[in-house]
């Protein structure tokens, strides 16, 4: 029988890599907390309608990329392709709109999109999602962008580019849509098939088409910024002043759009110069009409989502510090079967006293066990065999210097801890 493999486009994050993820997620958690955002855990699947309405029927995600299935009661459910709609759903469902605003939340977890797998693009991928719901103030937009940039600063990322735009609001966007349509109409033949079909349904989406010919036309198109109403213009001005105020370098990108009615005002993206084609490390913006679209009252909101795989890839490429792989401080070496209960008890005592410790379970000889200890990066090998048992002793070998120490058994754990603390390794909970 052929062995079963993981589905196309999904990856196992193996021990060689998982500690890097833990590092990134840990920095993300602390950054979010420093900015006053609280963690939520959201479900991985929701009613399909939440996404079709909350992301938009005419988006690529909803049209082509969702993992939708029927459960046994024939409800249509979908594996979440993003977290914003869930976050707003949760905010409304739990009456958070009745408390102090804005409500600032974050979550991290896997998202699912049926896309063509390639480097930096998977069918299951992780996002860090950060949302501020319930305030229209442009400085909340500034805070969201600032939070993402502070995260990247703490992670040591460089060579990033911030692009911002405003997509207006239902007040001013119809005017822009008209302007854009009259610009595009005479060039319709030069657009790709997808863009031709977007012309009627969602012409703004033509602006971010990746087809080079469409992109060249989009570059010539009038900018949405020139059509903004007074309120959106003021908001966009304050956003830029706020970003200048914190010394963030950014550029305006008139082709950056979200293209749906409930995405309003600010749109932004952070791009990595080291990623090639899949170069967006995060994207976000304002969605003042989303809550209404999913059946709630009018609640403004703004947020971003960052791709964890792409952050890890960029950090590896740039040689950023990512912590280190966990390793045992002590490896208990037991060359004789008869000493195993005592050796295992020592291992357990070490662990209970907060020392990362491990041992061999495959009946290897002394030399082979020492080799495994070194291979796992242990600092000390603690030898407890028949000989040590009879003499009520413990032999401790410093695997860095090769030095050997002998201790009385009852002093074993204390002696090991003091050896480790001389090496600068303290107990995790000290
Ligand atoms: P892209 O233009 O790369 O398709 P997007 O506009 O679809 O991105 P968003 O929906 O804004 O992306 O998601 C935010 C972030 O999530 C992206 O900036 C990226 O870092 C990450 N991301 C999106 N899709 C994937 C994917 N299929 N695999 C890995 N990361 C992804
Ligand atoms: Mg995409």
Helix content: 25-40%
Task: Label the overall shape.
Answer: elongated
Q: What radius of gyration results from the CA coordinates?
A: 28 Å
Please give the count of helices: 15
What's the total number of strands? Answer: 16
**Ligand kinds:** adenosine-5'-triphosphate, magnesium ion
- The portion of residues forming beta strands comes to 15-25%
Mean pLDDT: 95
Termini, distance in Å? 52 Å
Strand order of the largest sheet: 1-5-6-11-10-9-7-8
Which labels suit this protein?
430 residues, alpha+beta, eight-stranded mixed beta sheet, five-stranded mixed beta sheet, 15 helices, 16 strands, elongated, binds adenosine-5'-triphosphate, binds magnesium ion
Please describe what this structure looks like.
It contains 15 helices and 16 strands. The chain has helices spanning about 15-35, 50-55, 60-65, 85-95, 140-155, 175-185, 195-200, 210-220, 230-245, 290-295, 310-320, 340-350, 365-375, 385-390, 410-420, and strands at about 40, 45, 65-70, 75-80, 105-110, 125-135, 160-165, 250, 265-270, 280-285, 300-305, 330-335, 355-360, 380-385, 395-400, 405-410. Helix 1 crosses helix 11 (about 310-320) and helix 2 (about 50-55) crosses helix 4 (about 85-95). The two termini are about 50 Å apart. The relative contact order is 0.12. The model has no long low-confidence stretch (mean pLDDT about 95).
């Amino acid at each position: 029988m052929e062995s079963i493999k993981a589905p196309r486009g999904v990856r196992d994050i193996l021990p060689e890599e998982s500690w890097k993820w833990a590092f990134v997620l840990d920095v993300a958690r602390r950054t979010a907390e420093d900015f006053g955002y609280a963690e939520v855990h959201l479900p991985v699947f929701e009613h399909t309608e939440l996404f079709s309405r909350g992301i938009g029927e005419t988006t690529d995600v909803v049209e082509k990329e969702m993992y939708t299935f029927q459960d046994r009661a024939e409800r249509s459910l979908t594996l979440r392709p993003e977290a914003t709609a869930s976050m707003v759903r949760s905010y409304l469902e739990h009456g958070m709109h009745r408390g102090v605003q804005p409500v600032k939340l974050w979550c991290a977890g896997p998202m699912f999109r049926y896309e063509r797998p390639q480097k930096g693009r998977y069918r299951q991928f992780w996002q860090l999602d950060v949302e501020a719901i319930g305030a229209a103030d442009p400085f909340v937009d500034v805070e969201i962008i600032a939070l993402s940039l502070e995260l990247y600063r703490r992670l040591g990322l460089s060579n990033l580019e911030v692009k911002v735009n405003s997509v207006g609001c239902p007040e001013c966007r119809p005017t822009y849509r008209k302007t854009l349509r009259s610009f595009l109409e005479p060039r319709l033949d030069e657009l790709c098939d997808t863009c031709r079909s977007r012309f009627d349904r969602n012409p703004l989406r033509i602006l971010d088409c990746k087809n080079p010919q469409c992109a060249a036309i989009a570059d010539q198109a009038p900018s949405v910024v020139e059509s903004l109403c007074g309120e959106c213009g003021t908001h966009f001005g304050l956003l830029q002043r706020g970003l200048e105020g914190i010394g963030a370098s950014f550029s305006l990108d008139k082709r950056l759009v979200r293209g749906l009615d409930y995405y309003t005002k600010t749109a932004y993206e952070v791009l990595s110069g080291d990623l090639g084609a899949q170069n967006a490390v995060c994207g976000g913006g304002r969605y003042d009409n989303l809550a209404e679209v999913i059946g709630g009252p009018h609640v403004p909101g703004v947020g971003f989502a960052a791709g964890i795989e792409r952050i890890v890839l960029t950090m590896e490429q740039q040689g950023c510090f990512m912590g280190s792989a966990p390793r045992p401080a002590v490896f208990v070496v037991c060359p004789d079967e008869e000493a195993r209960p005592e050796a295992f008890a020592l291992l357990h005592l070490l662990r209970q006293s907060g020392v990362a410790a491990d041992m061999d379970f495959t009946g290897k000889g002394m030399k082979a066990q020492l080799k495994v200890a070194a291979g796992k990066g242990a600092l000390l090998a603690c030898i407890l065999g028949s000989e040590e048992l009879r003499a009520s002793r413990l032999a401790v070998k410093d695997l860095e210097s090769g030095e050997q120490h002998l201790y009385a058994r009852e002093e074993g754990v204390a002696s090991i801890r003091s050896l480790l603390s001389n090496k600068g390794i303290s107990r995790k909970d000290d």
